[in-house]
Design brief:
heterodimer; A: 351 residues; alpha+beta; Rossmann fold; OB fold (Dihydrolipoamide Acetyltransferase, E2P); six-stranded mixed β-sheet; five-stranded antiparallel β-sheet; 24% helix; 34% strand; B: 275 residues; mainly alpha; globular; disordered C terminus
C-alpha cells in the first residue's frame, strides 16, 4: 500500500550546477517529489545525485534554476532555515558530544525545554534501537550504531524531508539489508518524505516508491521500481539496473523485431518500420531448452554457481547471451534459447 | 628492542646538556656561596620587589597570550577556510619571519619605535594632526615590550590553531547547519569546542616563552622595565650571585611545570592536538 500523497512537496526546476567551466555536474534537472514519497536518486558516482541532494539541503547554490519547497522558492535559503535534515554518508556525528547530545543538538538550538528534549531523544533512540546508549561516546560505537545515531539525530527535528546520502554504503551486506527494511518501515510509520541517494540498484529497487536514474548530470529515467526494471528507457538504464542482455535489433514493424539472426514477436509498438533499436532481455527471461526446440541455438561457454541460480553464458550465432537458470548445463553443451514476447524490451537507439 | 641503540646519541645529549645543568641549578639553589646547604636563597626571593617582578612577568605573559589568541584565532580560522585560494601565500607570510633570528627582528622593532624611527614618526605625525602638543615616546614602555612579545610569539599561536582548524571535517560543520545552527551557533557549538586542542597547544607554546622573556624586555623596555627573566640574567651575569639566580630559575621551572600540567589535563580531555 502506498501512502504517497499527490501534493508536490519539492519541485526542482531546471537545476543546473557547474563547478568548473567544462563540466556540468547537473544539467537542467526537473523533478518533483511528493509528500510521503520515498524517492531514490540512483546512478554511478559523478552522475549528479549527491549534488542534487546538497542543493536541496542548501549546502550549495545552483548555477541556475530553482528549488521550490511547498510552493516557496528556497534556492537561496541557508541550510539552517530549511525544514529538511540530512543523514550523511560518513555519519558526521559530533565527536565532542555523547549520543544523547548528538541527538539533542537540533532540539537545543530550537530552545526546546529540557523535559521535552529528554522525551524526544529517548523516543528517537528507542526507534533506532539504541535505548540506553545515551551516555556513550560516539567513537566507541560500531559503524551501524553510528549510522543509527545519525538517523535519530536527523529525525529528532521532525523534518518534512529526510535526505540520505548513501547512508548504508559503509556497512556490511547483512547489516545493510536489515537497515534497508528498517528505514523503509520508519519512513512508512513516520509518514515523511525520504530522498535517498545510492549507487546500489538493488537497494533502490527494494525501498523506493520512485527511482530517478541519473548519468552525467542528466536524468535517464523516472519511474516506479517495476517500471524502471521492466521497461528501461535506454541501454544505460537497462545495464545499470540489474543485469541485461542488450543487443542491436531491427524493428520490422509493430510487434515484430529481428535480432541475433531471427525474427521475434514482441509487445512493443510505435517505433516505425525497419528502425534500428536496442533490445533488452533480462538473463532470467532467457529459458533453456533442448537445441531442436529453441528459438535460438547456442553452446554453453561458462557456468558459475550463484547460490539461488546458475549464471551461464551461451554463445549463439551472433551474440553471447547471459542466462540465469536454476538448472545448469555443462560447458560445451548445445542448448536452445527461448524468449517469450512479453520479456523482450525495445528501446530507442541511444547515442 | 633492537632500535633502542638509536636513541643513544639523544640520551647522551640530554644527560650532558639538560639533566646535568638542571642538577647544577638544583645544587646552587640550595647552597650558599661557601657551598653549605641553605634555604636563604628562597627566603630572599620572598622580597616584595622580586615577587612583584614575578607577578608582572606572569601578568604580561598572560596578556600577551590573550592578545595572540584574539589575533591568531580569527587569522587561523580565515586561513583554514577552504574557499580561500591565496592561503598558501598568507601562510608563508606568517612563517617567513620565523626563519629569521628573533633578536634581529627585535632590533628592527627598536629602530622602528625609537624617536625618529619610522613608526614613532608616523604615530606622532598623526597625533599632531589631532592637536597633540607633546611628542609621545613609544620605545622603553610597557606597551613596546608587549608589542614585541606579541609580534614574536604570534606564529606559535596561529600554526597549531591553523593545523586543527584545517583538519576539521567540513561535513561536521554542514551537519550542524543542517540541524538548524546559524553561523555563530556552528562556531560556538562545534568549531570552537573541536578546536580546543589547538587552542591549548597555542596557549602553551606562547605562554611558556612569554613568561621567561628577557631580551625583548631589555631591548624594548629599557633598564627600568624588568621581567623575571631579566632578573635571573642579572643575577648570573652582573651580580654574580649564582645561588640566588638558581633559586629563581627553580621557581620559574616549577611554575612552568605546573602550568604545563594544567594545560595537559585540559588538552587530554579533548584528545590531543598538534602534539
Amino acid at each position: 500500500m502506498s501512502i504517497v500523497e499527490s501534493a508536490h512537496l519539492i519541485d526542482l526546476k531546471d537545476l543546473t550546477m557547474v563547478y568548473d567551466a567544462e563540466t556540468e555536474a547537473l544539467s537542467h534537472l526537473n523533478l518533483y517529489i511528493r509528500k510521503k514519497e520515498f524517492v531514490t536518486l540512483l546512478g554511478p558516482s559523478g552522475c549528479g545525485k549527491t549534488t542534487t541532494l546538497r542543493l536541496i539541503a542548501g549546502f550549495e547554490t545552483p548555477s541556475s534554476g530553482q528549488v521550490i519547497f511547498e510552493g516557496k522558492d528556497i534556492t537561496h535559503l541557508p541550510p539552517y532555515k530549511r525544514r529538511v535534515n540530512t543523514v550523511f554518508q560518513k555519519y558526521a556525528l559530533f565527536p565532542h558530544m555523547n549520543v544523547f547530545e548528538n541527538v539533542a543538538f537540533g532540539l537545543r538550538l530550537k530552545k526546546a525545554d529540557e523535559k521535552q528534549i529528554r522525551l524526544r531523544v529517548s523516543e528517537m533512540l528507542e526507534m533506532v534501537g539504541l535505548r540506553g546508549f545515551d551516555k556513550r561516546k560516539v567513537d566507541t560505537l560500531s559503524g551501524g550504531q553510528q549510522q543509527r545515531v545519525a538517523i535519530a539525530r536527523a529525525l529528532a527535528n521532525r523534518p518534512e524531508v529526510l535526505l540520505l546520502d548513501e547512508p548504508l554504503g559503509a556497512l556490511d551486506l547483512k547489516l545493510r539489508k536489515e537497515m534497508q527494511l528498517e528505514l523503509k518501515n520508519m519512513q512508512q510509520q513516520l509518514g515523511i518524505t525520504f530522498l535517498y541517494v545510492t549507487h546500489d540498484q538493488e537497494e533502490a529497487l527494494s525501498m523506493s516508491d520512485t527511482i530517478v536514474v541519473m548519468k552525467d548530470g542528466l536524468v535517464q529515467q523516472i519511474g516506479t521500481p517495476t517500471d524502471v526494471y521492466n521497461e528501461p528507457k535506454n541501454a544505460f538504464v537497462a545495464d545499470f539496473i540489474g543485469e541485461s542482455n542488450i543487443l542491436p535489433g531491427l524493428m520490422l514493424r509493430d510487434e515484430l523485431v529481428r535480432f541475433d539472426g531471427r525474427d521475434f514477436a514482441c509487445v512493443d509498438k510505435g517505433f516505425g518500420e525497419n528502425k534500428a533499436v536496442d533490445v533488452v532481455v533480462r538473463p532470467e527471461d532467457v529459458k533453456l531448452s533442448a537445441p531442436e526446440s529453441g528459438m535460438l541455438r547456442g553452446v554453453v561457454r561458462t557456468v558459475v554457481f550463484k547460490g539461488v541460480h546458475y549464471e551461464m553464458t551461451v554463445k549463439t550465432q551472433g551474440f553471447t547471451w547471459l542466462v540465469h537458470s536454476t538448472l545448469s548445463e555443462p560447458v560445451g553443451a548445445a542448448v536452445g534459447l527461448n524468449i517469450v514476447p512479453f520479456d523482450i524490451h525495445i528501446m530507442q537507439k541511444g547515442d | 628492542m633492537k632500535t633502542k641503540g638509536f636513541a643513544a646519541p639523544y640520551v647522551v645529549w640530554m644527560l650532558l646538556f639538560t639533566i646535568a645543568p638542571i642538577l647544577l641549578v638544583l645544587c646552587y639553589a640550595f647552597t650558599d656561596s661557601s657551598g653549605q646547604f641553605t634555604l636563604q636563597n628562597f627566603q630572599s626571593f620572598l622580597d616584595p620587589i622580586y615577587i612583584g617582578v614575578l607577578f608582572r612577568s606572569i601578568g604580561m605573559a598572560l596578556l600577551c597570550t590573550l592578545i595572540c589568541l584574539l589575533v591568531g584565532y580569527p587569522a587561523a580560522y580565515f586561513l583554514a577556510n577552504r574557499s580561500f585560494d591565496k592561503k598558501g601565500v598568507l601562510i608563508l607570510l606568517f612563517i617567513i619571519p620565523m626563519w629569521m633570528n628573533f633578536l634581529l627582528r627585535t632590533y628592527a622593532w627598536l629602530t622602528l619605535l625609537e624617536s625618529g624611527g619610522l613608526i614613532a614618526t608616523l604615530v606622532n605625525w598623526v597625533l599632531r594632526l589631532f592637536g597633540a602638543k607633546e611628542e609621545v615616546r613609544l620605545l622603553y614602555s610597557y606597551q613596546a615590550v608587549l608589542m614585541g612579545m606579541v609580534y614574536n610569539y604570534l606564529p606559535f599561536m596561529v600554526l597549531p590553531l591553523y593545523t586543527v582548524l584545517s583538519k576539521m571535517d567540513a561535513r561536521i560543520v554542514e551537519a550542524a547547519e543542517d540541524l538548524g545552527a546559524n553561523r555563530l551557533q556552528v562556531f560556538l557549538r562545534v568549531t570552537l569546542p573541536l578546536s580546543l586542542p589547538g587552542v591549548f597547544s597555542g596557549v602553551t607554546m606562547v605562554f611558556m616563552p612569554a613568561v621567561t622573556t628577557f631580551v625583548i624586555s631589555r631591548l624594548l623596555g629599557g633598564a627600568q622595565f624588568k621581567l623575571f627573566g631579566d632578573l635571573i640574567e642579572q643575577q648570573f651575569l652582573f651580580t654574580g650571585d649564582w645561588n640566588f639566580g638558581s633559586a629563581m630559575s627553580l621557581v620559574m621551572m616549577a611554575l612552568l611545570l605546573i602550568s604545563m600540567g594544567l594545560m595537559n589535563r585540559f588538552g587530554d580531555k579533548e584528545g590531543g592536538g598538534v602534539f
